Structure formats: C-alpha cells, structure tokens
C-alpha cells in the first residue's frame, strides 16, 4: 500500500468518526427542546445510532469488493449521510416534524423520538458502520495488524468532534452553522473518494440546500430565528398588538406593548405580588428563568435579580421583544438556576420560578425535592415563593400528582395552588398554568380536633 493511499484511508476513518459523533450531538441538542433530555430519550437516540451502526458493520462484510468499487460506494455513502444530516439536524425541519406529530395526535415524547430515530437516524448511522467496515477491510488487506490503528483513528475523530462541537462550534458559530459544517465535512469526504460528475452535481445541490436552510438570514426571514446557539433557538413573533418570544419552538413570553401587559400568569404575579408591594423598603426579588423580563416590568423600585442559562436573553428582550431597556434596578446573571442557588448566600423576599415551559419539556433536575429545598433555603422570613407550573389543573395525570406530592413534602404548610384562567374539572387532559405558592410564615403544625379547638385565641 502506498503512503498516499494509507493516509487517504486513515483520513476517511477519522472523518467518519468525526461526522458521526458531531451529528449525534447536534441531534440530541435539537431534540432536547422538544422531548427533553431525560435518560430514556437519550437512550433511544443513542440506541438507534448504535443499533443501525452495528447493522452497517455487519453488512459491510457481506460481499467482496474491489478498491475502485469501494471508493464509489464510500462516496455515495457520504452523500447520503449528508442528506440525512440536513433532515435530522436542521432546526426548521426538526420543528416541522414535531408540528406534524402534534397535528396527527402523537404527543408522547418517547413515541415521537422512536419515530424520529427510525426515519432520520437509521440510514446515516447504518452508513457510518458500513463505511468503517469498508475502510477497515481495505487497510486490513495491506496490513493485517492494523485493527488497533483503525479503532484509534475512528475514536480520535469522535473525541475531537465531541469537544469541538459542544465547546466551540455550537456556542460560538451557532447550531445552524455547526450542522452546515457537519454536512460540509461529509461532502468533503465524498469528494476525496473521486466522485463522478453525477455525484459532484448532487454534492453541490446538497451543500446549497444546507447553506440555504441553515443560513442565519433565511432562518430569521422565514422562521424569525434570531439566535441559534448551544442552549437555545430564539425567535420573536411581532404582530400588530402582541409580541411572542419563542425559545426552541415554544412560546416563552408574551408582551402587549399598548397595555404593557404580559402573559396571564405574569399579570397575576405582577398584580397580586409585585405592584402592590409596600414601598417602606426595597425588597429583593429573584426570578429564575428570565423569559422576556416581563415579571415586574414596570417596577423601578425593588431590587431584581434575573437568572437564566441563555446569555442572549437580555439583549434580545431589549432590542427585539420589549424594545425598551430594563430599568437600572434589574440585573441579569447568566447561570444555571440550581447552581446559582447553591452558591448564593442572599435571602430574597420574593422568588419566582418560571423555568417550566410546558408539560412535555421539563428540566428534570428542577422538579426534585432537593432543588425545592435549595429554593426554600434562600427565602427570607415572611418571604414568598411562586412556582409557575404547566400541568393538569385537576390532577388528571401522574406527573401532576407526583409533583404536587413533591412540593408538599418540602413545603407542607402555608401553601396555595392557584389555577390561572378557567379549567373544567370534568374534562380530562386539561393543561393549565398553575401557580404553586409558599408563604414563609411561622407554623407550629397544630390542628383543630373535637377535643381541642382554641379557635377564639388563634383568630383574635
């Protein structure tokens, strides 16, 4: 084997490992905002990847193949991989897929992920495995002791991809450009396999489609996408009377410019807990989950701390959503909510938890008793905690009932459950914004019994 051929084969193995890992990471990032990132979702995606890849390993050994035919097959394989990378990784297409799922009545995240994996994570992973086998056979033909090097270069490609994709490309150039890069590397791998004219034309069309679908200009013009980074895909819908801030395809915040009002649950919080605060002193208010900064929007007196993991929210809210600067009494901290609570020593008079966007996409670490205990440890005496939840107003599902149990385990006394809007208790599967509220008042846990009922002393 010539040195040139040897380097060509090794480089293709490296590219195969790099592209496969990058695509897997991009897909998990894109799907996490529609179906969450629970272990069962991750296992379905990884299981599909590994399962179809294993089938590709097996099928790659089924027939004898000449080096010339192997080149052509590798070229075609990388082109097909590029096509499925567009379908599985481009946010506008992924968003359209989930829109169709809901339209036909499939709302289970697990079923949606299974179908997505079968449709879009089958051909690509299969060809990754198939390509690895073909390349291994070509190298093995010239050196039977090359198995370790093959595995090493494939793994090196995957390791570099896992670091570069998550720590460099997605945060700094955006997920849309990251998927363009992944497709481009797949096409580059196809090109160096010496494609014929038809393959070159196909490669050009695939790359053009990738650039168009994932360009920032097109995504902003047709989908309203302003930010597309490792954490969020953000867009703003600007109608005549209302603005809606979307994160990852889901409405996160609503604003009515003429009345300076927000979503119904935000109006409830502002009216009943913020705008009526006594002005005898400045109170400290913590908002976990900044959204569009509509909580306390017109309060320029109290001291606010907004915490969110998405660093672009303040700029987007001021320039695109609210189109007004936040008042000086509001500061924004970019951090995970749980980590912020873990490291701060400040006690707050009002804590608003607004990180639960819907009943399908739930940050699982933020619905645990341990996390609620952290919140409780940071509330000042006589302070109030408000959690905005999206769940069944009438306890129709297990998730709602278990969350309610969890909440009352940490907050057994002085609690309120407020359904926002109307909810028919006789209709199942009704999802509403429900405020879970805790008042940090002294409570000795006494109850009234027929034997001991000192109501007159407690009341007066």
Low-confidence spans: none
Specify the structural class.
Answer: alpha/beta
Instruction: Give a short account of the largest sheet.
Output: 7 strands, mixed
What integer value in Å does the Rg equal? 27 Å
Report on the structure:
The chain is an alpha/beta fold. It folds into 2 domains: about 5-225, Growth Hormone, Chain: A (Up-down Bundle), CATH 1.20.1250; about 260-450, 3-Layer(aba) Sandwich (Rossmann fold), CATH 3.40.50.150. The protein contains 16 helices and 12 strands. It has helices at about 5-35, 40-60, 65-90, 90-105, 110-120, 125-140, 145-175, 175-190, 195-215, 215-225, 265-275, 315-320, 335-345, 370-375, 400-410, 455-460, and strands spanning about 225-230, 235-240, 245, 250-255, 260, 285-290, 305-310, 330-335, 350-355, 380-390, 415-420, 430-440. The protein has a 7-stranded mixed sheet, with helices on both faces. Helix 1 (about 5-35) packs antiparallel against helix 8. The longest helix is centred in the first third of the chain and has 33 residues, at about 5-35. It starts with a helix and ends with a helix. The relative contact order is 0.09. The model has no long low-confidence stretch (mean pLDDT about 90).
Task: Note the main attributes of this structure.
single chain; 460 residues; alpha/beta; Growth Hormone, Chain: A; Rossmann fold; 2 domains; five-stranded antiparallel sheet; 16 helices; 53% helix; elongated
Summed up:
The chain is an alpha/beta fold. It has helices at residues 3-35, 39-59, 67-89, 91-103, 109-120, 123-142, 147-173, 175-191, 197-214, 216-223, 264-274, 313-321, 337-343, 369-377, 398-410, 455-459, and strands spanning 225-228, 233-238, 243-247, 250-256, 261-262, 284-288, 303-308, 330-334, 348-353, 379-392, 415-419, 431-439.
């Amino acid at each position: 084997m010539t040195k040139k051929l040897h380097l060509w084969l090794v480089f293709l193995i490296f590219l195969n490992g790099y592209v496969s890992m990058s695509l897997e990471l991009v897909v998990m990032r894109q799907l996490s905002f529609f179906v969450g990132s629970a272990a069962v979702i991750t296992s379905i995606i990884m299981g599909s990847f590994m399962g179809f890849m294993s089938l590709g390993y097996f099928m790659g050994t089924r027939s004898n193949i000449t080096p010339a035919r192997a080149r052509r097959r590798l070229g075609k394989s990388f082109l097909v991989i590029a096509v499925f990378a567009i379908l599985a990784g481009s946010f506008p297409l992924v968003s359209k897929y989930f829109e169709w799922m809901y339209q036909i009545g499939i709302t289970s995240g697990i079923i949606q992920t299974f179908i997505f994996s079968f449709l879009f994570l089958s051909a690509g992973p299969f060809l990754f495995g198939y390509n690895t086998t073909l390349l291994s056979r070509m190298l093995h033909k010239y050196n039977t002791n090359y198995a370790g090097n093959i595995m090493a270069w494939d793994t090196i490609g995957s390791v570099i991809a896992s670091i570069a994709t998550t720590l460099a490309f997605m945060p700094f150039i955006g997920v849309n450009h990251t998927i363009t890069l992944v497709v481009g590397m797949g096409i580059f791998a196809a090109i160096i396999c010496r494609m014929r004219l038809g393959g070159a034309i196909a490669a050009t069309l695939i790359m053009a489609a990738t650039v168009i679908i994932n360009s920032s200009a097109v995504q902003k013009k047709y989908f309203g996408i302003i930010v597309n980074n490792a954490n969020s895909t953000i867009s703003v819908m600007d109608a005549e009377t209302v603005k809606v801030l979307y994160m990852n395809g889901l409405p996160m915040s609503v604003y009515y410019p003429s009345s300076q009002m927000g979503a119904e649950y935000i109006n409830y919080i502002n009216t009943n807990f913020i705008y009526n605060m006594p002005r005898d002193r400045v109170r400290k208010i913590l908002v976990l989950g900044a959204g569009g900064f509509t909580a306390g929007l017109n309060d320029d007196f109290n001291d606010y701390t907004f915490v969110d993991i998405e660093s672009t929210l303040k700029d987007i809210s001021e320039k695109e959503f609210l189109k007004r600067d936040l008042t000086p009494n509001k500061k924004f901290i970019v951090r995970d909510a749980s980590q912020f609570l873990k490291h701060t020593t400040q006690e707050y008079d009002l804590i608003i938890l607004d990180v639960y966007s819907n009943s399908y996409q739930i940050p699982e670490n933020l619905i645990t008793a341990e996390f609620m205990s952290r919140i409780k440890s940071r509330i000042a005496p006589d302070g109030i905690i408000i959690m905005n939840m999206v769940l069944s107003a009438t306890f129709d599902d297990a998730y709602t009932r278990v969350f309610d149990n969890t909440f009352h385990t940490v907050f057994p006394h002085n609690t309120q459950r407020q359904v926002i809007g109307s909810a028919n208790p006789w209709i199942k599967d009704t999802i509403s914004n429900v405020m879970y509220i805790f008042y940090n008042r002294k409570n000795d846990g006494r109850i009234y019994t027929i034997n001991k009922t000192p109501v007159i002393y407690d009341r007066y």
